Every structure is written in structure tokens, then in C-alpha cells.
Amino acid sequence: MLSENQIKFLERSVEIAKQGMLSGKGGPFGCVIVLNDEIIAEGCNLVTSTNDPTAHAELVAIREACKKLNTYQLTDCEVYASCEPCPMCLGAIYWARVKQVVYANNRHDAAAIDFDDNFIYKEINTEDAAKQIPFIHYPLTSAKELFNQWQIKENKKEY
Amino acid sequence: MLSENQIKFLERSVEIAKQGMLSGKGGPFGCVIVLNDEIIAEGCNLVTSTNDPTAHAELVAIREACKKLNTYQLTDCEVYASCEPCPMCLGAIYWARVKQVVYANNRHDAAAIDFDDNFIYKEINTEDAAKQIPFIHYPLTSAKELFNQWQIKENKKEY
């Protein structure tokens, strides 16, 4: 199903995860971004070492790749991740609009070693009132007006 | 339903969104993080100005708050966002484990001005094969072993 190179990229994401874990950078997660069959960015989980809950391997690698390519869209890139992206990382992957994602461990493997990925997947389409973290929708006229202003704004950069 | 202060915080998130939009920093989105009834961090969307698809207002504000408090957990903090957090931001909110989220516009308002939030919400619990961006699960022995290593690792910092 995967080419020899693709398997190498996936193995590399695991290697990066292992290095990050062993050097105390964060949890056992790694990611590489590939363009035209070449690795252009790598990242491991940095949550606990940088005090940044958003520093998952995928986000670190996506930000690195975007910096390198000077763009906020990774249209022709592939993501190889040692574990299935959590909802935050999946969202980032969609916003970056990559071509494909390959992952090794999945959300259930992550749950088995006490990571919340599967829990957040369950929460995400739960109604606001039933969420473990309460979400309150409070419409404001000013907020509606702002969206109207965006819509008629000239020279805006869409994404 | 909301206190006068809470409404002020939400209005402030809209104001930040507006400033960011008008100064060309990115889309019309803002966020403030509140601790003990005081704003400790603010953020607006910086996607197009910083070439970072992960620089949504919520992520910018969460990272700022964590830096300020020197922690990766915002347990007693509240998030006020000018628009309902997208799945990426919702994930970040869960990982930061904040107390509560209040938002003004919602995902349907965002869709009406051509932002993908609602689309990503629909994609997120779609099966891998049916996703618009293909996700491939390819288990590796090395990845399984890595998770086993994490589980027996001593002195690990969990999150």
C-alpha cells in the first residue's frame, strides 16, 4: 500500500518521536512533512519542555514547513506522523491543506497510554451544554457587524 | 446569563479581532484569556501576516497566556473568543484544560463568510477513507514499541 520511501518517512517520524521522548522534550510523538519525496520539516512534541500545550509534533512540523516555504498553505505536502493526529492537529492539517496524511499508532493506542486524543474526538461534536469544558454561545451585534465588514473589505488576503 | 465583566471580555475579543483585521494581520478573529476576572493574554488571527496556518486567535492567546504563567495548563482560565473555536482551537482549549469558553459568532456565521470551520467539524469524525484529505493508518512495530517505552519510562512529565 505504501511505497518503500513512504514507509521510511513514517519510520523517521517514529525515530524523531523517540529522540524527543528520550531527551525530555515531551510526549512520544513525531512528525515529518514531505514535499516531492523529500523531508522539508520535522517536529517532535515539545509541550512540557516549552510550556506550550499547542506544541504537538504536527503543529511544530507544519509551522516549520510553512516558515521554510514562506507560505501558509502546504498544498503539495504529505504529513507522516508517528500517531494519528489529535483534533487540534487534524484541524491544523486541514487549514494547511496538505495532500495526504499517514500515521502509525492510532487514537486508541494513545488512549491506552493515557493521552486524551480519543476523549477530545468524542467531545468535539458534543453539544455545547454537554461538553466537559462548558462552551457558551453569546451572540453580539458587534461581532456580526465585524463579519459583515470582512465580507465587504477590499484587498483582503483569504485563506 | 453572563456578568457585565464577562460581556466586556467578549466585546474586547471582538475589538481585538477588528484591530487585527483592519491592520492586515489576518482574518476577523480575536481572543482573550481571563484569570481571576483579569485579562492575562490577548491574540488576534495572524495566519496570513506570519505565514502560519496555526496562528488562530485562540492559539496565539493560549500560547501567550502559558508563556506568562509559565505553565502548559490554564486550569483556572476562561477563554473569550469573537467566534466559536474551530476544531484546531477546540483541541488546543482541551489540551490547555481551561475552565470555560464564551464565544460570539458561531461556525455557521464563519461559513457564511467563507471560513472552513464548519467543514472541518464535519470532516473530523468522518472515516479516514472518506475524508477530503486522505488519512492512511499504517501500524508499525517500532511505533507500538515506542508507546510501550513511554509507559514504563521513569521521571516522565505527563500532560
Quick recap of the structure?
2 copies of one chain form a homodimer. The first copy, chain A, has 159 residues and is α+β, with helices and mostly antiparallel strands.
List strands and helices in order, with pairings.
The structure is a homodimer of 159-residue chains.
Chain A: H1 4-22, E1 30-35, E2 38-44, H2 47-50, H3 57-69, E3 77-83, H4 87-96, E4 100-105, H5 107-112, H6 117-124, E5 135-137, H7 141-152
Parallel strand pairs in A: 3-4
Antiparallel strand pairs in A: 1-2, 1-3
What keywords describe this structure?
7 helices, four-stranded mixed β-sheet, homodimer, 159 residues, globular, alpha+beta
Structure, explained:
- With 159 residues, chain A is an alpha+beta fold.
- Helices cover 45% and strands 18% of the residues of chain A.
- Chain A has a four-stranded mixed β-sheet, with helices on both faces.
- In chain A, a hairpin with a 2-residue loop joins strand 1 (30-35) and strand 2.
- The longest helix of chain A is centred in the first third of the chain and has 19 residues, at 4-22.
- The mean pLDDT of chain A is 97.
- At the A-B interface, helix 1, helix 3, helix 4, strand 4 and helix 5 of A face helix 1, helix 3, helix 4, strand 4 and helix 5 of B.
